[in-house]
Amino acid sequence: MPIPFLASLYFDGYPPWLPDPYLLLKYSTAAATITLTKWYTGGRTNTAERNMHGRVVLVTGGTSGIGAVTAYELARRGAQVVLLTRLPPTDAFLVEYVDDLRARTGNNMIYAEQVDLADLYSVRQFATRWIDNAPPRRLDMIVLCAATMVPPGGKRVETAEGVEVTWMVNYLANFHLLGILSPAIRAQPFDRDVRIVIPTCSSYIASPKLDAEVESKDWTPQWAYSRSKLALMVFARAYQKHLDSYKRPDQLPMTARVVLVDPGLARTPGMRRWLSRGSLLGLLLYLIFYVFAWLFLKSPEMAAQSLLYAVMEGSLVSVPGGRLIKECMQMDCARKDVDDEEVAKKLWESSDKLIERVEKQQAVKRAKAKKEQEKREEEAKKAAQVEEIESLVGAITRSKAKSAKVTAKGSNEAPKKNGKKGKSAGNNAKYNASHCHPVFFTNKLRRPPFTILPGPESSPVVHGYVYQEGLRGVDKSAGPRL
Ligand SMILES: NC(=O)c1ccc[n+]([C@@H]2O[C@H](COP(=O)([O-])OP(=O)(O)OC[C@H]3O[C@@H](n4cnc5c(N)ncnc54)[C@H](OP(=O)(O)O)[C@@H]3O)[C@@H](O)[C@H]2O)c1
């Protein structure tokens, strides 16, 4: 097909149905440039593979961007993935996310544990729970993808514990987590290929020196981000030395490896927030100019390739740890202070001190809060008891009043039954209940009138009050005897 076409071009000249050759050249050059740019910015694809079946992997930042792709790829290969998220595992979004990941990967061994990296106490709680397990839990890999960036122009933000948030999430939380998990890493068998994968960013090159004193008015989000990444790299190399210096009981060398990874610039939620400056207008501009983001930034899938290389490349076990991986290749660091032992020592010590100070402060606060809570609970308990007693007393008083009312009502109704409606009912106020004892003072047994007048009508016998025995004596002047 191309040969006849070229022959016709040669013999018959430029065909009229083709567009202007100048335009054709222009458009094809543009298309080629875009394709080449996209190909170049897309980065390299990982070709390393490793059997991940049954390996236990802790992943931070596994719910978004590069971390989410890495978690998916690891789960797809059969790894047991534990997502360390700031949300509790009962959160509806997280439950759905984990269910979806399980369904997409066909792997049910995906779990979530709450670890808020902006909270040292939360990190400690998780890590101590992990190392408290006896026998030591299997741990093959830790992938530390979580990071935060204050959008450009944003103000300095502190965590609830009073640490600057970028420093805390990007560096200090990782320092704290790996510090506590160190015994769990060292306890792994010699033949287990343990890796600690730490993403960094090329912005570390522009970071000020770690020991440089910077006034808070000089603080910028870019400065904070690049400094946190530089600190992470210095710590990563120092941590590898810390692991290497451990003398195993079996006298075998340490096989755990720390690997630094620069994934390159990618269109992740974090990057979107950064580019849009966290504003709606910025988001609108991002969408309008999305074509540039598409052209110059990697997809999260492509950005995760270097991480997957760091996770799976077999040759990384046989080289010293602390290597930097970029575009699925080992690279040298662009800054000397990454390997400076003095800088690393100072950073380690100052981080330890900061954590100790903050944790002490927080422990005192928690103890105080706990005491207050206990006091509140005690008071609430007492109030509940008082209320219960009062309600009991009230119930007794009410029932007494009710029974008294019923008795009074019963007494009032008694004369009515005897048919002496008018007078008795009218004299209620003067009526004395003791005169009307139900047994001894019924109306039938009423005493006779006090004075009995002479005459047959007034005789007590006639009235039926006296049983007449007949005449009892000769003295007739004496009245009838009672
Ligand atoms: N994207 C890039 O262009 C680029 C370039 C160079 C290096 N990197 C590095 O690559 C890694 C991944 O970047 P990304 O852009 O994919 O990140 P991202 O999309 O911004 O995601 C950040 C992740 O960190 C988690 N996270 C943030 N704060 C947390 C906290 N306090 N506690 C627990 N988790 C927290 C987030 O959880 P939620 O989902 O709960 O918010 C989220 O899963 C980062 O280390 C980043 O520095 C990225």
TrEMBL record:
InterPro entries: NAD(P)-bd_dom_sf (IPR036291), SDR_fam (IPR002347). The keyword Magnesium does not apply. The chain crosses the membrane at residues 280-297. Residues 355-390 form a coiled coil. The keyword NADP does not apply. Residues 402-430 are annotated as: Disordered. One of its GO terms (molecular function) is oxidoreductase activity. Keywords: Coiled coil, Membrane, Oxidoreductase, Transmembrane, Transmembrane helix. Belongs to the short-chain dehydrogenases/reductases (SDR) family. This is Oxidoreductase-like protein. It comes from Chaetomium fimeti.
